[in-house]
Predict the structure of Lcl C-terminal domain-containing protein.
Amino acid sequence: MVEIQKRRGHWAVIKWHDFVGWTFDEDLVWGSYIDTKTVEIKELIWQRCSVGQAPDEYCTGQASGISLEFEASDFKGEKLIKGPFIEACEALNKQSFAGRKNWRLPTALELKTLVRCTAGPQTLLKNFKQCNKGSVYPTIDATIFPNTSPNMYVTSDRSPAPYRDTVFSVHFEVGSTASSYSNYAMLGLVRCVSEK
C-alpha cells in the first residue's frame, strides 16, 4: 500500500513496501510547458509514462512496442548496450527530457522495485516469482504510473543460459521478472530511468 507521509507543493514523501523516500513531481518540463511527472526512488528518477505515451496527466495513448530481437553484438558481458531499446532512452537524452541527459534502460532489480502486489507478497519478488493470486493488475501503482500496460517491460540485464540471446523483462500482468524470448513477433515496452 502506498502511504503519502508528507506533501509539499507537488512533491510528496511516500512509503511503499520496504522503500521510503519516493517523491514525485507534477512539474516535469516537456518542451516549453509543464504537464507530467517523474518519480524518484532511491536516487533514481523514473519516466512516469511509458515510451510512446503522451507525457500528460493520464499517460494517454499506447506504449510503443519494440520487437524482441537481439544480436550477440548488442551485448557487452551481462548488459544490453545497443539496439532499439537502448535507442528509445537515448532519444530522451537528445530531447533533454525533464532537463536530463542521462536516461537509460533500467536494470531488472531497478524495474522490479516498481512492482506492487496488492494481494502480496509485500517484499521485493525474486526472479521468476509472481504476485499472489488476486493481485490487481497491472501490478504497479496506477496513481503514480497511470495507463501502464500489463505486458513486459525490457531491462538492460542479459538473461542467463540457455536464453543468452535475450534480456530480463518485468511482466506487470503478474509482477514477475523473467527471461524474454528473442522473437520478432513479440513486443517489449520501455520505461526509462535516470540517476540523480
Observations:
- The two ends are 25 Å apart (CA to CA).
- Residues 52-195 form one domain.
